[in-house]
Amino acid sequence: MLQKEVFMRRLSMLGIIVIFVFGASLVWAQKTTRLSIATGGTGGVYYPLGGGMANVISKYIPYTEATAEVTTASVDNCRLVGAGKAELALIMADTGWDAYQGRAQFKEKVPLRTVAVLYPNNMHCVTLEGKGIEKVTDLKGKRVSTGAPGSGTEVMALRVIEAFGLDPTKDMTRDKLGVSESAGALKDRKIDAFFWVGGLPTAAITDLGATPGIKMKLIGHVDALPKMRETYGPIYVKGAIPAKTYPGQTVDVPITVVWNLLICHENMSGDIVYNIVKTIFDHKPELITVHSEAKNITLEPQASGGSPIPFHPGAIRYFTEKGLKIK
Hints:
The protein folds into 2 domains: 150 residues, Periplasmic binding protein-like II (D-Maltodextrin-Binding Protein, domain 2), CATH 3.40.190.10; 138 residues, Periplasmic binding protein-like II (D-Maltodextrin-Binding Protein, domain 2), CATH 3.40.190. Helix content is 40%, strand content 20%. The protein is globular and about 55 Å long. By secondary structure, the chain is of the alpha/beta class. Strands 1, 2, 3, 4, 5, 6, 7, 8, 9 and 10 form a 10-stranded mixed beta sheet that branches. Helix 9 packs across helix 12. The chain contains 12 helices and 10 strands.
């Protein structure tokens, strides 16, 4: 009798395992669409926010499995989407506009479409007290990181520098580092300043400002705006990094701003794009828990010119249902 009970227990346990494995396999099999989201470096906002998007997309769209990929950000992200190596990407609107038109770093037009306007991207110019840098023109003769090669930071940083009448190649020694590497190099006194365009707050800059013995300083550069708009159009707008955004920051810092976008290839399925946009807006509270910049993902900039790139029909369908008229 005892042997029979043991046998029945084992049989029952085996049945439970089989059901679990079969059920898990069935759920996995239903994930018929794989989505790669190109983001940025781990020290910025794109990567955690992209990871949050991947999670909610995988969770609430039954047939999808989304993953966030570390990249060098905007320029490469446009190329990845254009080449079909990523389905979605986070980019800066100015870089995307260059890609869409096939100019600057892009030798041909990239068939991009806007999925959603996300949040404003804030240009930081970061240095330390004691470096003798009070304004952008003081960067002349200094060692400056202008962002990782192939990044939106590099594109916009060079435009800010040139708007102040400096030649980024001749007037300074350029390093090309991502935000985490730039913050580390500034902390170690290997560079004098760095540029970074991203959300607020950016973790790597927060960590730099909180480092004992470091007195970080942010340099305002809003005076570059008229020249930048004259040269590149109304993509750039006035903004500010509010006081107390970073450790030791006691005043608002006037800066230039460009919007961030979520993009896809023009040939992406309209139903998939519709469901992605709906999921992002329906579950925005979950994204806010990942990064506070998600609170700025709202309906208003979708219709007010936040993106120069045409919207995908699937996105237009969603925003039309919300009463927006997309230009």
